[in-house]
Each structure stands twice: as structure tokens, then as C-alpha cells.
Amino acid sequence: MNAIQLRSWISILIGALLPVVAWTQIPKPAQKQKQSILILNATAHLGNGEVIKRAAVGFSEGKIDMVLSAIDIRMDSTKYDTIIHAEGQHLYPGFIAPNSRLGLVEIDAVRASRDYDDVGQFNPHVRALTAFNTESRITPTVRTNGVLLAQVTPKGGRISGSSSIFYLEGWNWEDAVIKEDDGIHMNWPSYRKQLVKKATEKGKKSPKDNYKEETRAVNDFFLQAQAYAKDEFPLEKNLRFEAMKPLFSKEAKLFVHANRVQELTDAIYFADRFNLEMVVVGGYEAPLVADLLKDKSIPILLRRVHSLPRYEDDDIDLPFRLASTLHKKGILVGLENSGSMEAMGSRNLPFYAGTVAAYGVDVETALSMISLNTAKILGIDLLLGSVEKGKLATLFISEGDALDMRTNNVVSAFVEGKQISLDNPQKALYRKYSDKYKQ
Amino acid sequence: MRLRTSLILLLSFLMIALKGQEWKPQNGVNDPRAHYTAFINANIYLGDGQYLSNASLLIQKKKIIDVGETLILPPNTVKHDLNGKFIYPSFIEINSDFGMPEVNVKSSNAPQLESLKKGPYFWNETIKAEQEAVEMYTYQESAAERYRKMGFGTVVTHQMDGIVRGTSAALTLTDEEEHQLLKSHAAMHYSFYKGKSKQTNPNSLMGIISLIRQLHYDLDWYLQQEKSDKNNLTLNALEKHQSLPKVIDAGNTLSELRADLVGDEFNFQFIIKGIGQEYERIEEIKNTEASFIVPINFPKPYDVSDPFDAKQLSLATMKEWESADENLVHLHKAGISFAITSTDLKDAKSFHENIERAIQKGVRREKIIEALTSIPAAWIGIDDQVGELSKGQLANFIICTDSMFKDKNTLVSNWVAGKHYEIKALAFTDLIGEYSLNIDKRLQFELIVEGSPEKPKATINFKNEEKTVLAKIELNNQRLSLSFTLEDVSYRLSGSANDASARILSGKTLLDNEWKDWAAIKKKTEKEVHNEALNDTTKSQSTPLSRIRYPNKAYGWDSIPKKPMAIVFRNATVWTNESNGILKEHDVVIFDGKIQMVAFKINLDVMFPEKATEIQEIDLKGKHLTSGIIDEHSHIAIEKGVNESSQAVTAEVRIGDVINADDINIYRQLSGGVTAAQLLHGSANPIGGQSALIKLRWGQTPEEMKIKEAEGFIKFALGENVKQSNWGDRKTVRFPQTRMGVEQVFYDAFSRAYEYRAEQKLYSVKSKKDKKTAIAPRTDLELEALVEIIDSQRFITCHSYIQSEINMLMHMADSMGLRINTFTHILEGYKLADKLKAHGAAGSTFSDWWAYKFEVNDAIPYNGALMHRQGVLTGFNSDDAEMGRRLNQEAAKAVKYGGLSEEEAWKFVTLNPAKMLHLDNRMGSIKAGKDADLVVWSVNPLSIYAKAEQTYIDGIKYFDQALDKQMRNEIRSERNRIITLMLNEKSKGKEVQKVKDEKKKLYECNTVEVLD
User: Fold this and answer.
1) Are the beta carbons of B893 and A405 separated by less than 8 Å?
2) Phi and psi (nearest 5°) for B137?
3) CB contact under 8 A, A430 and B860
4) Residue B989 CB: number of other CB atoms within 10 A?
């Protein structure tokens, strides 16, 4: 079968699986996997650093039951109901967008559509779980590029709230959720206030030198929460402290958002004192505390790769190179995308990994930073994050290298074995207006 | 005898001259003080480099009567023997706000569109030409004293608020009111600071510059009016004071150059108040031919003892610290006329200290004194009264103990208009020295007095024993007391010194309850002898000055890269963007900044006979060579405001006035293969400002970055930004607030523009004779820009999102005889690509941005491909400093979304934007004759793995990966070097300042800043 035939064969297959899609509808969630599927001869990037050139990846009832090299091993393909021939194509585990406001916002500038930042400084009880919008117009455009999972995360305040991990697919949040309340997100106080200009200019107020005060407030809150957690029958229920309990029992992780070396150092020792499972989110100056991070086994969800250096004197490619620097120092690194245009921009997550690969690590290592590493950091690696036997069949096929925008073209994607629609409202508009000009 | 006669004659003449000036009624008997005062045995600096030693200065009342080495003093002279002290003319502070009242402004919640100053004044309350400092000042003793202590006797004062601040007054610093005023209108003051006005316009630096320009065009027109029609007090004041010098407070080195350009436009020369960093661009500063007022507030060293904190400090700030005290040397060497101001100094003490530092770096002492005396005096025309010491000048002088500014020099007194202000009382008696002390003729001690005569410190050595104790010594004129304790015995001595040099001390002491005599005889004087040559020839050791980079920060050049004669690139995959497409294994020759030839295996011997060996060959086997990326929509390299958002139409403002050539993002974008960009005004109003088209010639000045002979462009905008949808609930006053209103803004603007154009035409066709009698119509910068659009001399780039508004603007344009050159953003362009095509508008869009505002909810990444397929000239832009350096990757998204060929996609960021900017005759493709703006890529430039390895502009290599690596090392070692210097300063006990956060602001379309 040559490449052109293959492509048309696949589109026929997709066409058959999909009902006719209304113009601007959000695609309908897929049904549970009933038939077993075998993907044959794709270059399989497993997510754990390995590549199988001509792979046989089979899955049924939502689980991967075979990952083999089709060259080396003879296998029985007859036990699969459907075979997808994917010569020349690439297979990947579903990519994961951590620390994301996907599904919590539709249009950044429209207040009514924003559901990620609530009133108050210490909001561990505020959870992303029940606000996740499965009818978002954004999420379908994200999974189209291979991002199939997200850690949906509240923002703002000192403690922003609790995140949950979702498939970007499902009828409702209950349907889509993978892990509820997996972590609590805290913005570490900013050391910057120590450094901003004093009130010299007329009429401008100087911000207080309040880094110490703010870190003490964090410490106090955790001390009280810890005491509360030890009380089996609290007389007065405190929702904030209730929400903090999983942190102390290590059922949830503490995601500390910090970039400066001073903040990172303080945060690491803080988490250590409270014996918490900590993840750094951000980590611009993390190389300066790499030994400490390694020593305490703290991983990093590294800030947006496609960003400018924070300081004028910094190496101009520092943000591109940071992931490999940290990786080489033995730190577990995942990539995240928070910042402006966060939700819609998360479809570019694969390309962040591509840039990381261009600046210091091999492609497979870079790939793991948006798949298995992230799954490990989020604590879902037993079931997700890589293409391995026994794991959930959440994976996709791209025509070319998915980490390069030049070649990324996702042709089919599966969530727990269900083949999901790759249509989205933007494609619908594309068809609609392509048709307009054909008339 | 002849001498005496002439003296008598002179005296009687003076008597007549000085008599009869008292018109103020006296309380009590008349009390004239017509005596003379003479300062004898003085070293006198007359001014203009002339010193007299052992000379006298004679004054009477407020004036200098004579100065010279052999003066004959009238009998009624009070003599002060200065005993070798020094006299200098007192200093002139040219940039002062002495005695000015506070500025009070009313503020309201809603934006204030109109001036709150009632009366027939200029429409903008930050233009206050009518303000006269002479009417506003009140003498303030504490401020006067502060100045006098530094050595000033005269100030030129104005209220430092507003863009035009009115006239300053020259005042002496005496509390005697009748002697204060030297000149009531000294200069007209301008600034690039808006000040406290709450009126919305202007709210950007480019708005401020435009406002000053418009004001002067208004003035030109106003001058032609009949006298009876001249009823605006602000313009009247400008007219009245036209001949006064104009002083402008510019803000930074680039703004100093900007100020000069404004002056050039109206044929006047500003005196420019700088910030003391003129060394950054000393060539250009010199070329302004302006005079400069420079501060000497050198920054304190930073506390870099914590390396984590030190990390936040930029090399730019470090170099600022290092070079601060060298600025005067640079100005001096370049032969630039400058005056010195103390105004920006936070503490008056450092005034002398800092000047001495500058002298040590290599400025002549006399040059500094001139900069504080005769130079400012001449600028404002008070040099007949102050600035030097000569007959007839005001008795404005200072007395000090040593050469001016020297470390040990002390200012003793400051005489202002003949009135004495003591600064430091000198001890009458000088105890300093070693004495042999005996008490009751039996006890022998050694008394050593050190320190200064005013604060003597005494120690006692017990003779023949190695024992030293501290003693307490107190001096009151010639009377003194001395006490010390030795081996549990307290000695308390009282007595007196025999004369001023205290050679013998003697007196009484109580020993065993009896009064006994004591005496001390001076063995050795430590008094300094001024044997130093008076004509101060202290050539400073001239330590080498610190290196200046271009720009003076990280990644700046040591010297700006030069253009090589020719380069040949060998064996590259050449993306020509021409009909021959992508050529494998081809050679490209550039010569004198232009592309010379593209061919397979070029023979240099044929092309450059005899010179072939001199030509640099670069082998690009396996690499790709493209023309440079052109960012059609960029907001980098812009200073102090990307939006003049105060009015719906601000066509008069120009980004070209505020290019920030020092923005590090220029260099960063070079590393992403960008060679040219359109720097656009923001999108805060329907008709924004004029664009600047630049090449990213890192290290050059703003003017040199501009693309010469590029056509004019202007920013228009539609939708949410211009109707202030996302600006908060307060911003609901400025018209328009709906898309309906937006349309009307355009019709109104162009209707006015057509009328203006007709009026101008009518005047221009008049005969010479008629022109003489007619009044030339007022030049309106806003309408001028719109007329340029009408006349196809300026082209529109319009920020737009949704199809209805895009359609509207094309209809407006069609009906007003205009054409929209480019719609930028144009995220719904795909919905009306056919209409765009018909109108002839280009579409410069984002590859995949959407959902950030309500109006971009229907944006799709297929937009580029759809528009392109309908024949619309299409490109991708950045509008973002970060994405600007990855536009090659953005181009790839046209392949991914919509399936364009790679060649077509690449044109989205090169040739197509060149066409949109009318630069395609020189840029955008690799073709013989075009500018050698080239990028070497490691792999296919559309790939995420591609890196720009070298970037050339006009054949000059402005970026090179290898060089970049080298620069990083240099930055590190340079940082370390300066950090060590700062640490040394700290360990020497110098005061340090905390490291500040230096995060820089980045501009996007809708960034609106509040200026102060």
C-alpha cells in the first residue's frame, strides 16, 4: 500500500466512524471501545524514551495489550477486529497539558466566561473539578494536535485551589475526569517585592517589603491546617482545612509556583518541613537549586518554553534550553504552558517539546516531557503517559513528527481505546468558508 | 600723586553713582552702609582660566569695585585678611525650581478630556507658556541656604511641571528682596514630561513630541494674525518670549537626540537638560550642536554581596554606575558646551565630591568652574552681572580654604550681592602642632594637637615613657582648656594662646589645691603651605575610561560591525522566493550590501578578477539560506508608550519619534532571523499614529535604523480596543464606544481632511503677491497625515477582527477615495476574502491566535490559507516580542493548517510582508540587486528544529551563533569585573544601594500606559 492509498484509506475509516458533524458543533464524545484495534507499522514513540520503528500496538477494552516490534516478532493479528495500517506515520501517547485553565475559560476578555480565579487568598477548597466545561469550543482544537489530557487548574491568590486531571473528551466532568483533586496549587510569595524600586518617583507608592510577612502567613496557614488534619473529630468544620488534608496524607501533591532562586529555596525547605509531596511549577532559576531539588526528589513543571528570557543579560535561548539543563542535572521535567492565551495556546504544547529537542536533548527525551514525565509528576503514570502494555489506550497517530508544526498532523486519536473525533469548530468554519468560495 | 587724585576722582564718581538709590522709607534714622570691604591676601580666580595670587577683591554694597594684585584701598575699607584663602565667583544653578509653589491638580474619576485652566489659554493644560516664574517665586531661606552651602549664588528658577513650563527667572540667593532679581525672563522651558496634568492628552512620549511640534506650527500661524485677533494668552507669551533661549528637559540620551530634531524642524536650538549619560551616544550628541545641562548625580554602588540578588542587576545598570563619573570627560573631550546642575542630587554633600571625582577622571578644573559660572550666565544673558569676578559685576563670590572641589577644601563663606553668608566658621586660633608642655616647671609632657583647627584632637605623651593618653581640648577664640588623666591623676588646665598661630600656650592649673602655672611651646607647625601652582595644571592621571558598548548593555557591540566588501555563500539550499523556487546546492554572492548573484558554482575569479582571494567564502553545505524575515506588525523597540490613546484620532503622532534602539528584543529577534519590521502604533483608537519601518541594525541609533526612502504607513484600528470594551468601567467617555461610532470617526476625519486639503491647495496656488497679504492656513499635523493618505503618500495598516467592521472600512475607503493597504490581525478575513481581494487589501494575520477576546471567537488557523487561496496578499506577523523571534515556525503553521506549500508558507513572513510594506523592490527575496538581508538556517527554516545561525542586514552580519557564544562569556566576565569593583566600594565603607528589580515592559497592541 503506498502512502496516498493509505491516507485515503484512513480518511475513509475516520469518515465511517464519525457521524455527519453539524457545522459548528462541539464534537460528540465517542462510545466505549467495543472492538479491539491493532495499529501496525507506525513508528511508535512510547513516551518512555523508547522508539519502535515498525511497531504493532494493540488495544482492547480501553487497555493496551500489545506493544511489539512488527519486524522482530511474529504476532497474531487475527485477534484484532480492526487493523490500522500506519506505515510512515508516528504513534504517540496522548500528550498532557498540566497546570492549565482549559475548560475553565472560553474567552479571556469576557468575564462571564472566566471560571479560574476566585476571591480570597487561601482557597484550597476551591476546585476545578466541577467547573470543567466539556462543551468548551477550545478543547477540541487542542486535542486535534495530540494533547488529550489536561490537569485543569485554578489560578490566582496565594493558594489558588485544587486541580483535577481530565481527558479532553467526555459528556460531562464526571465522565471526563481521570483523577479528582490531584493537587493543590500555591503561588509562592514573590521575592520581587524585595527588589522593586523604592518610592522615589513622585506620587508612586512603594510596595511593602513584605516577602517575609507573606511567607510567614503561608507557614501559619499550613501549621494550622496540619493541626486540623490531626483532629479526627473537629468541633467546627473548616472547609479550607478539610481540603488541605490530602496534602498531609500525601494523597494530593503540592504544586508550588515559583521562579526565583530565593523563592524556590524557601519553598523546598518549606515542603520538607511539612513533609509534603511537592512539585515546582515555573522554575526559571531552578538550575541554581538543582542539587537541592534532586536531593529531595522534587520534579518540575517547567514554565512555557516559548518565552523570553526574564533578564536582559540572560542567554537569549535560555528558556529554550532550560528543560535540557534541568534534565541533565537529573531532575524530572514536564512542560507546562501557563500565561497569556493559556487555554487556546495549549495546542502548541507539542512544539515546546520540539524546541526542547532542538536545544540539548534527543527527541524522545523531549517527548517524555509532555507525556510520561508529566504523568509521573501528576501521579497518573501507572495508567497513562506512555504506550506500554497494561496502560490505558490513550494515544494518537500523526502523519509526521508531532513535535514539529511542519509535520504535526494528527489523523486518529484514542482515549481509553475510544476513537475520538478530531473535528473541531475551527475546522467546521474552515469547511463552511471553503465551500463559500467553491460556490 | 597722580594715583591719589585719580582715586579721589574715582571715589567721588562712585559716590554719585551710588547715592540716591534709596527710595524705601526708613524706620529710624538713615543708616547708609557705603563703606568698602576688601579681601586681601587672597588667591582669586577671576574666571576664564585666570588666577591672581596674593591679590585683593574690593566691593562696595552689592558690587565689585575692583580686583587685582595691587589695589589701593580707600580709607573707609573693612579689611579681611584671607591669609592665602581662595575666592571664586559663586555658582549659577541653571535648572532650579527654587521658590516655586507646589502644583495642585484636581482629579476626577472620569477621564478628563478638556483643560481645567479657565481663561483664554491653550487647549491643553500641560502647555503653560504664559507662566512666569518671576511672578510665582517666594524666597525660601532653607532652600537658599542649601544652595549657598554648595557654592551657588544665583539660580535660574522655573516650575518643573508640564510640557511647556513658561519662563524662568534669574535670581540671586539673598534674602534682601531688592537685590534678588537679575533677570525676570531668563529662558522658556520645555520638557518631555507631561507633569501633573490629568487631561488625557498626551499619554505617550510620541504624543508629547507631537504636541510640541503642533504648538510651534500653531505659533507660526498665530504670528501672522492681526493684533486684535491675537487673544490667546499662551501663544501671546510664546510670541513675546520668542527670542529667549529654550531649555528642554529631555529624559534620556535618546530623548536628547529627539529634542534636537524637534528644534531642527523649527530652526531653533534647544539647550538640552540631559540625564548625564551622554557618553552612550557621544558622537550623535555632539552632532546636535546643542548645549547641555548635565546633572552629576552619580548612582551609588549596588549591594551585590548576595550573588542571587546581584543576578537581577543588568550589565546596563552596572555600566551606568561605572561610567557615571566619566560623562563630563566625554563631553569635555568632544568639545560639547555644557553647564552643570545640582538639581537631581539627592544630597547636597555629594556635589563637591562628585565633581572632584569627575576632575580625577580627566576634566579640567577650570572647565567645571566655567560650567557652573560663565557658561550658564552667557546662555541666559546675565554674564554682565554674574559669572566672573571683575569690576562692575555683582559681589557674588565664595571664599574657601583650598582649590575648588579639592577633597580638603572647605567653603568658608558665600557672599551674595555683597551680603555675607557664613558657611563655616573658621577657628581664630590654630592649635595644630606639637607642643612641649610643662606644669609647675617640673612635670614634662608632650602635647600633640591634630585634626583641624575647628576640631582639634589632643593626645599627651608622658616624657620618656611610652605612654599616650587622650586629652580633651576646648578652644574659644584664644581661650582654651585642656584636661587629661595620667596614672589616676587628673590634670585640668586653663589658659590662652598667645596669638592666632598659637605658638605659646600658658595658664593656670590647680595642683594639690594650689594654683600653679603651666606653659606649652609649639615645636613644629603642620600648617600646609600652598606651594601648589595656582594655575591648576593638575593633569589627572587620566585612567582609561570604561568601555562603551553600542548599545551600552549586554550583547552591545564594542564597535558597530562593518560592511564587508563581498561574501560568497556556497552550496546552500537557497529559498529564493522567486520563480526559480528553492534551489539546492547553490551559491549566493553579496557585494556592498546587495545581492549580486545567485547561481550554481559561482567562479569568483571571473566575478572579481584579482580580488577573488579577498572575498570571504562561507560553506553552507546542508544549510538553508533565505531572505530575512519581515515582521509586518511589531511593537518592540518603542519607548514610553505604544499608544497615544487620548483621542479617537491621533494621526499626528509618530512611532519614528520614539524608536528605542537599545531594546534587547532587537538582538533577540535577529537571533530568530528577523531583519526588518514595521513598528506600529497600538490599537487604542480608530486612527492611531504613524509607523516606523526599520531594519534591525542592532547598535545603531534610531535614525540609522529607519529604512531610508520607505513609504509612510499609519495604524488604524477597529473593534473592541478602539471602543474601549476591555478597559474597565471608567473608560466610557471617549467617543466612540460602539462599532457604529467607529464608522463615523472615519467619515468625520476624512471629511475634515478633504476640507483642509482644499484650503491648503487654495493657498498654494496663490500668487506670490497674494500670499504676502493672505494668512497661510495653519499646519495641522493630524490632518496633514490624513491628507497624505488621500494623496497615496501614506498607507493604512488597520487592526481588525470581525467581518462586519472590515467590510465597513472598505466601504468607507471606497466612498472617500481611499484604499486600505493592509488589514492586520484580520482574523475573520477568511469570511470576506473575496471582498478583500476586490478592494486590493492585504491580510497580515496571526497563525493560530484566538479566543482571547469576544471578537476573536471565530478566528481560525486556516485563515491564512483561505485568504491566500482567494488571491489576497497574505502574511503572518507577531505583534509579540517573543513570537517575533519564531516567525519561521509560525509560517510552518500555514502548511499545517490549510496545506499550503512550504514555499508559499515561507513567503508569509518574508516576501509578502515586504510587498505589504512596499519594500519588495529591495527586500523579501534572494535576487540580484536586492538588499543583502539574509539568514543562514541550520535546517529547513519551517521546522521547529531550525535555528538561525547567522543574520545579515545590508551584507553586515548582525547576528552569529558563534559570536553570540563569545558575547555570553564576555557578559559574564564583564559582570564579574564590575561586581568586584562594587564589592570593593562596599568594603571601603561606601554607601551602597539595594539591587532593584529590572523587569522590562513589553508592548502589545492594547498596552496603554499612564505617563507621569
Assistant:
1) yes
2) -80, 150
3) yes
4) 7
Of A354, A358, A429, the CB nearest to B860: A429
* For chain B, percent of residues with pLDDT exceeding 90: 78
Classified by CATH at the fold level, domain A3-93+420-438 comes out as: Urease, subunit C; domain 1 (2.30.40)
Nine-digit cell at B471? 586629652
What is the rounded distance in angstroms from the CA atom of residue B894 to the CA atom of residue A405?
A: 9
Closest Cα to residue A356, out of A370, A343, A345, A344?
A370
Which of B554, B854, B870 minimises the CB distance to A312? B554
Give B211's DSSP letter.
H
Beta-ladder partners of A397: A91, A412
A146: left (phi over 0), alpha (psi -120 to 50) or beta: left
B830 contacts chain A (CB < 8 A) = yes
Alpha helices in B307-364 (DSSP H): 307-310, 315-323, 327-333, 350-361
- Write out chain B residues lying below 8 Å of A108, CB-based: 851-853
Looking up residue B194, the CATH number of its domain turns out to be: 3.20.20.140
d(CA B829, CA B859): 9
Interface test with A, best of B945, B966, B974, B1003 (most A CBs within 10 A): B945
Put simply, the answer to whether B671 touches A316 (Cβ < 8 Å) is yes
Tell me how far apart the alpha carbons of residues A104 and A101 are, in angstroms, rounded to a whole number. 5
Cβ–Cβ < 8 Å for B936, B670: no
A429·B870 Cβ contact <8 A = no
Which residues on A lie below 8 Å from B902 (Cβ)?
A: 406
Which CATH code fits A95-195+207-384? 3.20.20.140
Residue B614 lies in a domain: no
Residues of chain B with pLDDT under 70: 1-22, 463-465, 524-542, 999-1001, 1009-1012
**Cβ within 8 Å, pair B850-A344:** yes
SS3 state of residue A311? coil
Among A288, A312, A347, select the one facing B316 at the smallest CB separation.
A312
Which of A138, A195, A406 shows the shortest C-beta gap to B851? A138
- Which of the residues B997, B1004, B1005 would you substitute to probe the A interface, choosing the one with the greatest number of A C-beta atoms within 10 Å? B997
What is the pLDDT at residue B872? 98
- pLDDT tens-digit map of B111-122: 899 999 999 999
Q: How far apart are CA B721 and CA B686, in angstroms?
A: 9
Rounded to 5 degrees, φ, ψ at A430 are -60, -45
Coil, strand or helix at B399: strand
Tell me whether residues B998 and A357 touch, CB distance under 8 A: no
The mean pLDDT value of chain A amounts to: 91
pLDDT tens digits, one per residue of A106-141 = 999 999 999 999 999 999 999 999 999 999 999 999
* Chain B closest-CA separation from residue A45 CA (Å): 18
Q: Which of B469, B503, B525 lies at the terminal end of a domain, its last residue? A: B525
Biggest CA pair distance of chain A: 80
CATH number, domain of B514, equals 2.40.128.120
Nearest residue to B161 (alpha-carbon basis) of B201, B118, B196: B196
Interface residue of B852, B858, B937, B969 to substitute, partner A, most A CBs within 10 Å: B852
Contact B553 A109 (CB under 8 A): no
Cβ distance A109 to B720 less than 8 Å, yes or no, reads yes
H-helix or E-strand spanning residue B596: strand B594-599
Please answer whether residues A163 and A126 qualify as being in contact, where contact means their C-beta atoms are separated by less than 8 angstroms. Answer: no
**C-alpha cell, B311:** 543576578
To the nearest whole Å, the CA of B940 is away from the closest chain A CA by 10
Residue found by looking up cell 471629511 in the block:
B751
What does the pLDDT read at residue B1009?
A: 62
Task: Give the global pTM.
Answer: 0.92
Asked if A313 and B315 come within 8 Å (Cβ–Cβ), the reply is: yes
